[in-house]
Amino acid sequence: MRRWARSIRLDVMDNPSPDAMRRAVAHLGPVLPLLSELGERFAAAGHELALVGGPVRDAFLGRTSPDLDFTTSARPEEIERILGPWADTTWDIGKEFGTIGAVKGDATVEVTTYRADAYDGVTRKPVVAFGDSLEDDLRRRDFTVNAMALRLPQLTFVDPYDGLDALVKRRLRTPASPEVSFGDDPLRMMRAARFAAQLGFDLAADVAEAMQEMAGTIAIVSAERVRDELSKTLLAPAPRRGLVMLVDSGVADHVLPELPALQLEIDEHHRHKDVYEHTLSVLDQAIGLEGPPAAPADAVPGPDLILRLAALLHDIGKPATRRFESGGGVSFHHHEVVGAKMTRARLRALRYDKETVKAVTRLVELHLRFHGYGDGAWTDSAVRRYVTDAGDLLPRLHLLTRADCTTRNQRKARRLAQTYDELESRIEELLAAEELAAVRPELNGNEIAEILGIPPGPVLGRAYKFLLAVRLDDGPIGPEAAAERLRAWWAEQPESQA
């Protein structure tokens, strides 16, 4: 390892300390042989090669980057010729933009020709222009912390835009002016929020100002790309930082307008809490309740996108349902129903998959169910319906409900926690006694049809739902009693008289 450290040559005005460089190179230790081998292959072919972007940044942060990104003076066809004999597999799906991918053993690499991209200003699709120098390639990157490189195979550190200084200060700056950078690629504004959430970065003053001025240009970015950046922000260690950045800059007005809309004007008598701050607190608390990544499903291993989306969106129906009551209070009646509809619409607009949309929408719809039963004792029927309505979302609903308590009244908070503890105990008891996770009517469809003498169809479906309601309300009563209840119900139906 020391041999590699001694080979470093620094090309920056404000050199990092030798210790910092040694630690960074040591962190790259597992991939140093690969870096050397690739660098020598490209050099032998007469081309430059550099490790660039995230892997270099993460090495200084002591983090392991999941990707190895390289940039080179070679054109795509030449990259393929160099990588072909070396790699186990190569692919050229990004060849149009100068990128060739390869797999060698357990390592996956992407090598891209020096770029000098231009964008058409209408969509995010780049017009590819290949560049001739590493420094020009670094200038087109999003932020200076991602515009550092290691020339290979010598491991020469290149930092023409003071990315290391920005990294030390946890400050996001752009290599070019922020107006040019965001004008080339408006998605970089959302990427700034993601880096804030992932790495704890703040914005340089000129970057913050440019985001506010150019927030509306995010509209030209595809919904899928916006969705991906939002998800990465939510799955980061500190999503609140990124979300606040999106709201303060105005970018959220265009990609998630329901969030800034929660900044309801607080009346002078403080008759309701700040819904926006409450939402961010619920998100923080939900994250704190997640299980470790290797936890079983019923512990909701984190980071969990569905839970975090539900926490973020659970109260978005409040602005539309706020009413000032005659007695001086404020109500948000049925905000969970309105919020569920809004959640479905927003997640569909962001092109989330159907299962995610369905799950998050259902959690928003159910998040007040616990409070609907008040402080009184839960009947067995209420517990059964709570469990069956939540289905496999029950572990997440437990966490969302607990996270939704942000009151500063400690006595009230303890009472709510105790009540929910009692509910979870009741659920466990009934699950053990009645197998609620797979609750069904005590007569199946064929048996219902035979008893009533009816064919499959809508009427049979109604009969099935009736018996399911009986099962939920009364628990197991046995097939004979279920048949009696079914016949009594049938006698009251108009179809029985036909």
TrEMBL record:
MF terms per GO, please? Answer: ATP binding; metal ion binding; nucleotidyltransferase activity; RNA binding
Q: State the Gene Ontology BP annotations.
A: RNA repair; tRNA processing
Q: Which InterPro entries match?
A: HD/PDEase_dom, HD_domain, HDIG_dom, NT_sf, PolA_pol_head_dom, PolyA_RNA-bd, tRNA_adenylyltransferase, tRNA_CCA-adding_enzyme
UniProt keyword Secreted present: no
Q: Which residues form the HD/PDEase domain?
A: 271-435
Segments forming a coiled coil: 413-440
What keywords sit in the KW lines?
ATP-binding, Coiled coil, Magnesium, Metal-binding, Nucleotide-binding, Nucleotidyltransferase, RNA repair, RNA-binding, Transferase, tRNA processing
Recorded hits in NCBIfam families, A to Z, give: HDIG (TIGR00277), tRNA_CCA_actino (TIGR02692)
The molecule here is called Putative RNA nucleotidyltransferase
